[in-house]
């Protein structure tokens, strides 16, 4: 597991928040709200459901933070809570369709000098959005949030082998969408 300055700072915030530091809690929420909401958007059918699930998750995180044994586990633990909240929301909806949400808000394009890069990135993001939610979430947690397979397994509440399988299938589907000729060659091998 890579421990960069951001992860170390998050660990400090979690530790301080656990000991009752309100400012640390507020900063932790400020830093993690966009990540948790993006994760909920990947797993939900709509923005309203994702926002509600994220809000409910924050309540659960606040109540359970003192029981978190290892501050290093916070990312996977918090993401797992969001995952479970999204699953509950989906069950409550009984598959009822929500109004569609323009997912461009989920993964904003970074500012780049190259227009060609922006077009390529937009094409890749559009392909990512076409994946099933479980594969989209797994791929995004791995490549965009830089979580390990073990952390993703915790976050999605699935075995590590399932994470690896989802990554494999998601990559194959993306390859086929982004380069149909190359994807066909890999599918035959």
TrEMBL record:
UniProt protein name: Sigma-70 family RNA polymerase sigma factor
Domain RNA polymerase sigma-70 region: 28-94
One Pfam family of this chain: Sigma70_r4_2
Stated family: Belongs to the sigma-70 factor family. ECF subfamily.
Residue ranges occupied by any RNA polymerase sigma factor 70 region 4 type domain in the UniProt entry: 124-174
Keywords, comma-separated and alphabetical: DNA-binding, Sigma factor, Transcription, Transcription regulation
